[in-house]
Amino acid sequence: MSAPEQSRHLVTAIPGPRSSELIARKSAAVARGVGNTMPVYTARAFGGIVEDVDGNRLIDLGSGIAVTTIGNAAPKVVDAVAEQAGKFTHTCFMVTPYEGYVAVAEALNRLTPGDGDKRSALFNSGSEAVENAVKIARTFTGKQAVVAFDHAYHGRTNLTMALTAKSMPYKHGFGPFAPEIYRAPLSYPFRDAEFGGKELATDGELAARRAISVIDKQIGADNLAAVIIEPIQGEGGFIVPAEGFLPTLLDWCRANGVVFIADEVQTGFARTGAWFACEHEGIVPDLIVTAKGIADGLPLSAVTGRAEIMDAPHVSGLGGTYGGNPIACAAALATIETIEADGLVARAAQIESLMKDKLGRMQADDDRIGDVRGRGAMIAVELVKPGTTEPDAELTKKLSTAAHQAGVIVLTCGTFGNVLRFLPPLAISEELLLEGLEVLELILRDL
C-alpha cells in the first residue's frame, strides 16, 4: 500500500460513514472503559499524515502519544520488522535468547546519559518498566518507600497508578493502591509564580529544597528507596521544572543513598531535542526508564542504569514472556539507526524553534494563552480565562474538538485539563506543522 499524500484533506465530515460504522461495532464489542480521543478509524499513516477509512487526511500533531517519533511506517523500521518476522516471531529471551535483545541493550547503554558501566533490561510497556525500576531500586537499597511528584503520570498498573497523581481517569475507583508511595511538590514555574512568587518560579534549587524538606519530614532518607520523576512531565501538562531543580534533587539522592529514577517514557529518543531530556541539565540518573518512541510503534520498554544497581536483583528476578520481543527489538534498532542517520535530534530542536515562534506570537495577541512551554517536539500551551491564571478546561476541550473536526490531531493534558500538547512526528514537514498551528489559531479566534 502506498503512503498517503502529505496534505490535509477532508472528503467527509468527521466522523465519516465508514468510521461511524466502526464506532457502532466498537460499542458492541469493546469494553466501555477503553476510550478514544477522535471518532475516526485509521487506514494508513506516514510522515505527518494519518488517513482514516473514509479517505480523510489528518495532520498528525500527536504521534500516537509520542510513540511514532520518527514517523509512522518509517522505511527502515518496516523493512526490519518484515525481515525479523520472516525469521522468527518469538522464542522468549528467557528460554532461547537471541542477538536482537542484546543489541538493543548495548545501544541503550551507549546512548543513555553517563559514561560508566551500565546494564539494561527490556519489557513491554512504560508502566511495566517503571514497576521494574522500583523493584530494582528496592532490591539495591534494601528500603521500601518511593517518592513521586505532584502532577506526575507513571502508568495504569497498580503500582504506577499509586505513583500517578491524577485521579480521573487514571485512578478513580481502582484502589486500593500499592503502599509506601509518597508525593512531593514539583517545580511548576507557571503556577509557582502565582502562589510562591517569582523567586520560587525561577529558582529551581529553591523549589528542590522545598521538595526535599517535605521528603525529609514525611519519609526520611533512611526509609527511601527511590525518587522517580519525569524530567519534563507528560500527562501532568508538559511541565519543565525550573533550571536547577533536577540537579539539586539528584545531588540530595546521591548524598543520601536514594536511587534517582528518570521516567523518560515520553521524553526519550530525540523527542526533546536531545536523545534524553536529562541531558538538557547535564544530569546522569541512576536508572532511566524508556518506552513509547523506542520502537516506532511496536511494544517495547526498558530500564537502563548503573551496573551495580541493575545487577542487584537475583537471577530470574527480572523478565517476562514477551519482554524484548524479537520483532520489537528489530524495530528499536531500526528506529535508533534512523534517528542517527537522519539527524532527528537536531530536527526536534528546529521544530521547537518553529513552534515556539508561532505559538509565542499567538500568545502575544491572546491573553487566554497563559503559557507556552516545552522542549523539542514536545510543546504545550496552557489555556486560562482572559486576564487571569485560572485554568480554562472548557476552552481547551472546545479547541481540541474543533481541531479534530478540521482534520488536525491534537491532544490535551494537565491536572486541570487546560493544556493543549503537541507531539508532532519528527518526519513532519514544516508546511504541515505550520498549517496545523494556523488551523488552531483560526479556531481559537472563532472561540
TrEMBL record:
It catalyses: 4-aminobutanoate + 2-oxoglutarate = succinate semialdehyde + L-glutamate; (S)-3-amino-2-methylpropanoate + 2-oxoglutarate = 2-methyl-3-oxopropanoate + L-glutamate. This is 4-aminobutyrate aminotransferase. Pathway: Amino-acid degradation; 4-aminobutanoate degradation. Keywords: Aminotransferase, Pyridoxal phosphate, Transferase. The keyword Magnesium does not apply. One of its GO terms (biological process) is gamma-aminobutyric acid metabolic process. The keyword Plastid does not apply. Pfam families: Aminotran_3. SUPFAM superfamilies: PLP-dependent transferases. Belongs to the class-III pyridoxal-phosphate-dependent aminotransferase family. Its cofactor is pyridoxal 5'-phosphate. GO terms for molecular function: (S)-3-amino-2-methylpropionate transaminase activity; 4-aminobutyrate:2-oxoglutarate transaminase activity; 5-aminovalerate transaminase activity; identical protein binding; pyridoxal phosphate binding. Its EC number is 2.6.1.19, 2.6.1.22. InterPro entries: 4NH2But_aminotransferase_bac, Aminotrans_3, Aminotrans_3_PPA_site, Class-III_PLP-dep_AT, PyrdxlP-dep_Trfase, PyrdxlP-dep_Trfase_major, PyrdxlP-dep_Trfase_small. It comes from the Bacteria.
